[in-house]
Amino acid sequence: MKTKKTxxxxxxxxxxxxxxxxxxxxxxxxxxxxxQEIKQPNILWIxxxxxxxxxxxxxxxxxxxxxxxxxxxxxxxxxxxxxxEGVLFTNAYCNAPVCGPSRGxxxxxxxxxxTGHFAFDLTHQNPDFVRPSFPQILKNTGYQTAQFGKTGxxxxxxxxxxxxxxxEHYEYIVHFKHNLQKNSVGxxxxxxxxxxxxxxxxxxxxQENLKRPDGTIERYYVHKRSGEISPEDIKKKKEIEKEFExxxxxxxxxxxLIIGGENPMPANQTVDAKIVDEFQLYLNNxxxxxxxxxxxxxxxxNSKQPQLIxxxxxxxxxxxxxxxKQRDIFKKKKYAVPNFDKKEYDKLPPQLKKMHDDxxxxxxxxxxxxxxxxxxxxxxxxxxxxxxxxxKTFKQYCKKNNQEYLIVFTVGDHGWHLxxxxxxxxxxxWEQSTNGAIIIASSNTTKVPAGVVKNQLVEYxxxxxxxxxxxxxxIKTEKYDYLDGMSLSNLFFTxxxxxxxxxxxxxxxxxxxxxxxxxxxxxxxxxRPANNSLTSNENIKWGLECTLExxxxxxxxxxxxxxxxxxxxxxxxxxxxxxxxxKKLGNIVLGDGRVECDWSKANTYSLSxxxxxxxxxxxxxPKDIIPxxxx
Length: 631
Fold this sequence. Notes:
Blueprint: H1 2-37, E1 42-47, H2 57-64, H3 77-84, E2 86-93, H4 99-108, H5 112-115, E3 123-124, H6 134-140, E4 144-149, E5 155-156, E6 172-175, H7 176-180, E7 188-191, E8 194-197, E9 200-203, E10 205-211, E11 217-224, H8 231-243, E12 247-248, E13 258-260, H9 271-284, E14 289-291, E15 297-299, E16 307-312, H10 324-330, H11 342-346, H12 350-359, H13 366-400, E17 405-411, H14 431-434, E18 435-442, E19 452-454, E20 458-459, H15 463-470, E21 502-506, E22 513-517, E23 521-526, H16 542-545, H17 548-551, E24 554-557, H18 575-591, E25 594-597, E26 605-608
Parallel strand pairs: 1-16, 1-17, 2-19, 2-20, 3-5, 4-6, 4-16
Antiparallel strand pairs: 2-18, 7-10, 8-9, 10-11, 12-13, 14-15, 17-18, 21-22, 22-23, 23-24, 25-26
Helix pairs in contact: 9-13, 10-13
């Protein structure tokens, strides 16, 4: 009996061993097959808001061989590390110096004048000239798409009574206003209380909400549509301003704008920190359910699909409120203040004079100007810390799932002035409004080299084709010939310029104005006579046929005036060159595929093509109209 039992046990053990081996082998094969299923890289696209590139040490070292900005001390260790791992583009320019149309150009890969998206209009994708956004394209190729932070593209779903309806660029969205601040997750934010009167929404004014670490929220009006602000609200506002050293803008257009102060929440509890928390919950709870910071049940990332994630920070946009952790470091620093004088102002055309008047920073005291600069750069440093945390989590997710990754960081949806042209703002055609930077890094350094700096001209319309190309899509086919941008991978292994100029246009604050920038000259002009909405191409050639004075030209010779302080458009020596630029830029933005759309309707627009093909990326300026300058 004992022998039979022993033989049976041996057979059982052998069988068990074979089954175990089979299971291990099968699991290995299945795991390998699962890993091989995802050939497209996970993509993390980071955008910051109003972010000057000189807030980055790596950028400053690339352009001036020193870590400090022209104004003074900055700190960005985590972004520096990302730049060391990939390619840093220093001459990147937005195609609209304002959030909505700039983000619209990035997500569409098209210039504002070819999308009819010039400002904060509630645009939509119903007109037949519209093409899908790149997240929509990737979603159709198998990507899972998610967005965390600022959904500021201003492209919504069309429908009767059009409003802020999800256009489904992303499948999973955490919006800092709608999901976080709406659910009292934030630091200091404004909102507009309203009442329903006779079935109509009537806004009462603007109220600020301040959240303290213990969860207490204090509310007070800073503006009322009718009637006076109560003494209690006035007192509360003053107490809050004193406690947190709140600095408000002197701007005529928005006197309640907060341009400095201490965040009421610690560094790990600001609204941007909560955005990163939600991003981390999504990735750290892959394939399972989790609870958001406002108590909603959601499901984490699907590890069986490649991920396209847009992490869109609100910082360093106003309200500029760095947490105490960073602010205590920067408030001890002394900063240089950009020069500005009346002679510079007097040479501006009326449109740009009005912009200066609306955004004037020169009436602030020296102490206030120092605080505005200190707090801005401190807020950028807070962003650097959060970006470092987010990238670490993203890389861990990719490593865990043995998946390749691509990181694209758009440094600012546009720039921000800290005294240049005498303003603290954006919106202008100048360098500080339009210049940003782009960093691209990959786990595969054969595709994206590490530690490379590129100084060629690039634009934000290049973001879409770069990401589409990286996902494996052939953007050179006829299907994608509507893209105005190019894949930045074209520049990874060459020093040759691919663009002779960059383009942009917006109508915000002072009316329609377009700009063209090359390495030697910066030019801008008024494109349309009125400041109201652009809904038809009536009198489309006005910008080319009106008087030079009505066109309100601005031309800067960057060879001798890189800070754009001397508008030479009407100087006799430069007059012919200014006229040449007027014709070149005017033909492009007015006559080479320009769209003006009535966004209140489903499919009503005008298309202008009287100068088709002018946008040829060439600047064949006659040499005899280019003034000679001393070296």
